[in-house]
């Protein structure tokens, strides 16, 4: 698929500097640009490459002015990185345009299917499910009974959405995601084993939530596990029963959140973080990778370590951590000198 500089500028509401009719059909890094490719410049340290790149079109910030000749046609936009991201979304949308119902698949007779839907082969849609407009359900996806899926949501191959869960509008559920499996609820019994506690709640994803491949979100014991508007979860994350994650929070891969913990809005949580259950984490919290959280966290805190403590304190302490053998050796020498003088 080819696009001209003029067409791209129209999409991004930008200005063409150079040949408006030049065409591109692929993307490239600016330092690896070739004829027929599109690239962008947003990080100033890559500026030298704009004078050598062979990319046909380069997206740049509106205030960029070359100080020597360039070969590439420029498209000036307010924010080059944001503009390139927007273009990727547009391209991905065109690339993933699918419609119709492939066979074989199973759709319960109680389900009303919009004309704008795409359902891939071997997908399963259970009783009384409600499917919105422009929804895409890829092959081998499972949609349980009474599930509700909002407009413009995409469910990729192999995702499983258990009964009674609610998925909002414009969500992306990637392959291997499991939404609504039973929470980890067991009670000790008199025989010395464990009896399962029925998990009768559900999971609610609000609008514009993105769930990465292999992530699991457990249904609530009672009530709902809730993922609020705009949350982005990376691959292979575990969200336990009755957890609530606030608006626009982002969590990186392999993080685990134990049951009934509440995470605030606009938090950023790094990879492999472990968060204990029944905690309250405030808004705008930053947690560094591989941290362990075992206490309530106030708004705006920055944490690192296991158990985690203040990010600034951690960095100061780390100077001593890495020099601990030398410090101990010096202390032993001092003790010997003191003992020798007594």
Automatic annotation (TrEMBL):
Keywords: Acyltransferase, Lipid A biosynthesis, Lipid biosynthesis, Lipid metabolism, Repeat, Transferase. GO terms for biological process: lipid A biosynthetic process. The keyword Lipid biosynthesis applies. Its EC number is 2.3.1.191. InterPro entries: Hexapep, LpxD, Trimer_LpxA-like_sf, UDP_GlcNAc_AcTrfase_non-rep. GO terms for molecular function: N-acyltransferase activity; UDP-3-O-[(3R)-3-hydroxyacyl]-glucosamine N-acyltransferase activity. Residues 22-89 form the UDP-3-O-[3-hydroxymyristoyl] glucosamine N-acyltransferase non-repeat region domain. It comes from the Bacteria. Pathway: Bacterial outer membrane biogenesis; LPS lipid A biosynthesis. One of its GO terms (cellular component) is membrane. Coiled coil: none annotated. The active site is at residue 241. It catalyses: a UDP-3-O-[(3R)-3-hydroxyacyl]-alpha-D-glucosamine + a (3R)-hydroxyacyl-[ACP] = a UDP-2-N,3-O-bis[(3R)-3-hydroxyacyl]-alpha-D-glucosamine + holo-[ACP] + H(+). Catalyzes the N-acylation of UDP-3-O-acylglucosamine using 3-hydroxyacyl-ACP as the acyl donor. Is involved in the biosynthesis of lipid A, a phosphorylated glycolipid that anchors the lipopolysaccharide to the outer membrane of the cell. Belongs to the transferase hexapeptide repeat family. LpxD subfamily. Homotrimer. This is UDP-3-O-acylglucosamine N-acyltransferase. It comes from Winogradskyella epiphytica. The gene is lpxD.
């Amino acid at each position: 698929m080819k696009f001209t500089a003029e067409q791209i500028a129209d999409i991004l509401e930008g200005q063409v500097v150079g040949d408006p009719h030049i065409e591109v059909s692929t993307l490239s890094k600016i330092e690896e640009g070739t004829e027929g490719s599109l690239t962008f410049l947003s990080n100033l340290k890559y500026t030298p490459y704009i004078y050598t790149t062979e990319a046909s079109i380069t997206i740049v910030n509106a205030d960029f002015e070359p100080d020597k000749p360039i070969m590439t046609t420029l498209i000036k936009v307010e924010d080059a990185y944001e503009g390139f991201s927007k273009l990727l979304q547009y391209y991905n949308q065109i690339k993933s345009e699918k419609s119709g119902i492939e066979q074989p698949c199973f759709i319960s007779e109680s389900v009303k299917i919009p004309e704008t839907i795409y359902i891939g082969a071997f997908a399963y849609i259970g009783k009384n499910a409600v499917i919105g407009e422009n929804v895409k359900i890829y092959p081998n996806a499972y949609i349980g009974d009474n599930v509700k899926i909002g407009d413009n949501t995409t469910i990729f191959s192999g995702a499983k959405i258990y009964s009674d869960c609610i998925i909002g509008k414009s969500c992306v559920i990637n392959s291997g995601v499991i939404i609504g499996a039973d929470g980890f609820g067991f009670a000790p019994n008199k025989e010395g084993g464990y009896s399962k506690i029925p998990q009768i709640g559900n999971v609610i994803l609000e609008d514009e939530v993105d769930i990465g491949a292999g992530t699991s979100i457990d249904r609530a014991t009672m009530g709902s596990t809730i993922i609020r508007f705009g949350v982005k979860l990376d691959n292979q994350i575990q969200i336990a029963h009755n957890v609530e994650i606030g608006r626009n929070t982002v969590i990186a891969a392999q993080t685990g959140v134990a049951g009934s913990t509440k995470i605030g809005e606009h938090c950023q949580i790094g990879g492999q973080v472990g968060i204990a259950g029944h905690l309250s984490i405030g808004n705008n919290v930053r947690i560094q990778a591989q941290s362990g959280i075992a206490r309530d966290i106030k708004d705006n805190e920055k944490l690192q370590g296991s158990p985690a403590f203040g990010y600034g304190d951690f960095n100061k302490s780390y100077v001593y951590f890495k020099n601990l053998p030398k410090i101990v050796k010096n202390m032993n020498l001092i003790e010997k000198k003191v003992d020798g003088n007594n």
